[in-house]
Amino acid sequence: MNTILVTTDFSASSRNTLAYACGLFGNEAFTILLLHAYAMPVTYTTEGVALAAMGDAFINAEEQLQEEKQWAVDNFPGVQVRTKAVVATMMDALRDEIEATAPQLILIGALTDYDDLWTWDNDLLSTLQDLDAPVLVVPGHVTYQPLRNIGFACDYKNRNAAQIRFIKWLVEYTGARLHVVHITRGNPHDPKARQENEALMQELLLEVNPDYHNIEDPHVIPAISGFAKDYNLDLLIVIPHRYGIWDTIFKQSHTRRLARLNYLPMLALHD
């Protein structure tokens, strides 16, 4: 059975992300794994105090996880949820779970809007780029609606088979229309190579019959935002290649530009 991993810190944003996961995957084909990671505070100075405090925190986390599970079951009949609490950083917990269960998708709730991404925990920024699994970030105020239009911000380069398989699976599972959008910030350096890469992408995605859009605009995020609104996108797929445009945007000095996309869940696929 496919595993959908949802992280929680028991905040309102995490509850919203759980609701999003239940809405999208609340059927017998999936099990939602609700994961809470508890990192021991560095202020614990003695072994006895640390063990006692950690034990209390762990019991409390287990109780809260059961409450979250019950809420999901009560509100989404048919959903299958299991819970897990671990003593670890969230990144370590996610890496361990990826190795153990190979989740189909990881969902994380954004504690704040994308424009405040630089205030997020560094682990979350790393998650968007480094984990060997697809990661969907759900803004705290975005509630689940059936996916009708999915955008794929594509540079036609550095694709791999796993990315293509996942995109095709998601489109087929949701029945959404896929829009492949390519933004160029000026005349392409090698137009022939771009045309060849675009033709190859069209061949790879032929089964899901996407619409292709090429936009010339020096301002990538405003162009993507305008496109998303024009085509009523419900979700945006990005591939944050190292040293590529999305990698740059996720850095602290650039993330305020992502404010334009605060209304849109963002799915990061990895190289």
UniProtKB/TrEMBL annotation:
Name-wise, this protein is Universal stress protein family protein
Q: Which residues form the UspA domain?
A: 2-110
Which SUPFAM superfamilies does its entry note?
Answer: Adenine nucleotide alpha hydrolases-like (SSF52402)
Matches recorded under Pfam families: Usp
Q: Which domain of life is it from?
A: Bacteria
Q: Entry's InterPro entries? A: UspA
